[in-house]
Specification:
With about 290 residues, the chain is α+β, with helices and mostly antiparallel strands. It folds into 2 domains: about 140 residues, 60s Ribosomal Protein L30, Chain: A; about 130 residues, PurM-like C-terminal domain (Phosphoribosyl-aminoimidazole Synthetase, Chain A, domain 2), CATH 3.90.650. It is about 30% helix and about 25% strand. The protein contains 8 helices and 11 strands. A 7-stranded mixed β-sheet has the order 6-8-5-9-7-10-11, sandwiched between helices. The protein has a 4-stranded mixed β-sheet with strand order 1-4-2-3, with helices on one face.
């Protein structure tokens, strides 16, 4: 394994400056340039070996891609444009240097696809498993950031695509809905939005809690991904669509529209229900949650 500064030197060779990034990695901090009327939106996410990926099974390029794309999906959730990212690596001692370079390549290519350069970060080695943290900076670019707290009774509940079964591979290869989010907002007001990282039943609950509302979903309207049907286990395809997580489609609330899939309605009563035929039952939040 090369020493830390050999790896840092290689990473620096992968970076370039631009009008918005006059100084990338190399000094203690990078320098970014934003338009005077831009809001800066900041977030951070991490991926852990054994939780979000398996370093013994998954290609490092896909691990890096997932680490970056989770953050890009957060940009989509607020309809902002990604501007730059900072990456921190906790590397297991003795890791193959080629693995690390392929990992970084996956990160970089995912960011480049959305104009989001990596402008700095940190590396360290330890006796634990591989862990990556990506901090991202977004910019509003003329669109007010969409929050989770604006849903109102009577709004429709929409999703941008089919759900469930991401464990069959889409949790590594999904495409963040950054462009779709900007287009949705341009076509009409969106009152609240979130990306589906922890499962529809749990993430919709976040919108309802922040907005002080409830919701009723129509089971027959929820789009189910073919992967959810392929799992063929003790849970139904609908249950997978409600709870699997890591679909990274967008769930949003809005007035009537035809550019997404309507799956339910926001209600004044602060409860989450799902209606299957004529019967409605409580919607239990069964998506992913870290246990401490």
């Amino acid at each position: 394994m090369p020493r830390e500064f050999d790896l840092i030197h290689w990473i620096r060779t992968q970076q370039t400056t631009s009008e918005s990034v006059p100084l990338a990695a190399g000094d203690d901090l990078a320098v970014l340039k934003f338009a005077a009327n831009d809001l800066v939106i900041v977030g951070i996410d991490q991926v852990l070996d054994g939780v979000h990926f398996l370093s013994t099974e998954h290609p490092p390029e896909l691990i890096g891609r997932k680490a970056m794309n989770r953050n890009l999906s957060d940009c989509a959730a607020m309809a902002c444009l990604p501007a730059a990212a900072v990456v921190s690596f906790a590397l297991p001692r003795g890791i193959d240097p080629d693995f690390v370079k392929r990992l970084y390549t996956g990160l970089k290519e995912a960011g480049d696809a959305f104009g989001c350069p990596i402008v700095g970060g940190d590396t360290g080695s330890w006796d634990g498993k591989l862990a990556l943290s990506v901090a991202i900076l977004g910019r509003s670019a003329g669109i007010e950031p969409v929050r989770r707290s604006g849903a109102r009774p009577g709004d429709g509940i929409y999703v941008t695509g089919p759900l469930g079964g991401s464990i069959l591979g889409r949790h590594l290869t999904f495409t963040p809905r950054v462009r779709e989010a900007r287009e949705l907002v341009a076509r009409g007001p969106i009152s609240a939005m979130i990306d589906l990282s922890d499962g529809l039943s749990r993430d919709l609950g976040h919108i309802c809690r922040e907005s002080g509302v409830g919701a009723i979903l129509e089971a027959a309207s929820i789009p189910i991904h073919d992967d959810a049907r392929r799992l063929n286990d003790e849970r139904s395809a609908l249950e997978h669509a409600l709870s699997d997580g890591e679909d990274h489609e967008l769930c949003f609330t809005s007035g009537p529209r035809e550019d997404a899939i309507r799956i339910g309605t926001v209600t004044a009563e602060r409860q989450l229900l799902i209606r299957d035929g004529n019967a409605a039952r409580p919607l239990v939040a069964t998506g992913f949650e870290h246990r401490f």
